[in-house]
Please model this.
Amino acid sequence: MAKQYKTLGEDIWKNRVETINAELFIFTYGSIVAQLVKDFEDYEQVNKQLEKMGYNIGVRLIEDFLSRSGWGRCTDFKETMEVISKIGFKMFLNIAPTVTNWSTDSKVCSLILDENPLNDFVELPLDTQHKLWYSNILCGVLRGALEMVQMQIEANFISCVLQGDDISEIRVQFIRHLQEELPNADD
Amino acid sequence: MILSLYIINKAGGLVYQRDFNEGLQRLSSNDYLILAGTFHSIHAITSRISPTGNSDGLDLLEADGFKLHCFQTVTGTKFLLVTDPSHHSVDGILRKIYNLYSDYVMKNPFYTPEMPIRVELFDQNLIRAVHTAL
Model:
């Protein structure tokens, strides 16, 4: 099964995705984060804003993911995470984070980002140590996208190479299935 | 022949309706809303009365004079396509319409999700896609 996700992800990346210049993308994201840091002067707030922005992206991006991949509903959270990594991340960022460190009840796991295009050329100021999660937008994207397919989750960075850690790790926790509830308006 | 398209949001509200042929009988705008809401409820019921477990609910409605195909996305949005009775497979065109929706509607930053769709680029591309599919 895992192989099938990988093949599909690569096929979509090669044939059904339009790419843009990576530098333009990196600069755009970088200037957003830098501007937020300037405006809020508080890294906690910046993390929150990035997460919110990601959420608003996620609720839209999920339609693009579904319509392009033609993927149906996953059977369980484990499959969901594999699909997110091998097809989702592949489609939008051309990376496939490793899904690992499952909790025994299969509700919590980690995405290890071996590479992360958002990080390219980035060096954080020293005083951000373990306060600013530069790529926190990704956590929001995950939450927004999964909420649209009736899954409530929480995602947080617990380590990041930009902070001097060995790996970048997003911890993802499944909370519950949403039953036909109305979605929240944009944050 | 494809006659018209309805898009129903996950709450059962009609967010889009378009006819593709001249001279089709129109309902009042209030009736369209009622129709969408009613269809939404019936769809929910049909997905629950399945005696064999999981069901995605009403998929095709055949009537004298027309067929109504329903495609529900994983996110809960419904695309209803009304065709003439001789029309068989609509999978291709429905998939194409979903693509156009995700491109021109959802990627438009000034479109608010779940609200009525008034997006010119979507209209244009939709009409083109339907006419080439004929």
Observations:
- The interface with chain A takes residues 10-11, 44, 73-77, 95, 98-99, 101-103, 106-107, 112-114 of chain B (CB under 8 Å).
- Chain B has one domain: 2-133.
- The first strand of chain B starts at residue 2 and ends at 8.
